[in-house]
Amino acid sequence: MKGIDVSKYQELIYWEKVKAAGIDFAIIRAGMGKYITQIDPRFEQNAFGALSAGLHVGAYWFSYATSPEEARQEAQVCAQVLEPYKGKF
């Protein structure tokens, strides 16, 4: 399988063209850090586009944690961001 890793830095992605180019899956950055405001600004657009194009989709949360408590906070925020996609990724 061929896949890509995307975030806000790829800007607008034409997901049908991605699929037509032979890409099977996308790993999408959901966000970073310990606050909900740190969601990747293109996460929802990318998740919707990739799923609509029929790609397999996964997500990751970029961590800045330097302690177990910060890691827990980041994991909770990530879970909150991914909740609407439960069962789709």
Please provide a brief summary of the model:
The chain is an alpha/beta fold and 89 residues long.
Please characterize this protein's 3D structure.
The chain is an alpha/beta fold. The chain has a single domain, classed as TIM Barrel (Alpha-Beta Barrel), CATH 3.20.20.80. The protein contains 3 helices and 3 strands. The chain has helices at 15-20, 43-52, 68-82; strands spanning 3-6, 25-32, 56-62. The chain has a 3-stranded parallel sheet, with helices on one face. The longest helix has 15 residues, at 68-82. The chain is elongated. The relative contact order is 0.21.
Helix and strand arrangement:
Blueprint: E1 3-6, H1 15-20, E2 25-32, H2 43-52, E3 56-62, H3 68-82
Parallel strand pairs: 1-2, 2-3
List keywords for this structure.
single chain, 89 residues, alpha/beta, TIM Barrel, three-stranded parallel sheet, 3 strands, 35% helix, elongated
CATH-defined topology: TIM Barrel
Q: Nearest-angstrom radius of gyration?
A: 13 Å
**How many H/I helical runs?**
3
Number of extended strands: 3
- Reading off the top of the CATH hierarchy, the class is best stated as Alpha Beta
Tell me the fraction of residues in β-strands, as a range. 15-25%
Count structural domains: 1
- Compute the separation of the termini in Å: 16 Å
Percent helix, as a range, is 25-40%
- Low-pLDDT runs: none
**CATH architecture descriptor name:** Alpha-Beta Barrel
Q: What is the CATH superfamily?
A: Glycosidases
Order of helices and strands: EHEHEH
Major sheet size, sense and barrel closure: 3 strands, parallel
- Return the structural class: alpha/beta
Q: Please state the average pLDDT score.
A: 96
Spatial sequence of strands, sheet with the most strands: 1-2-3
The backbone outline, from C-alpha atoms, is elongated
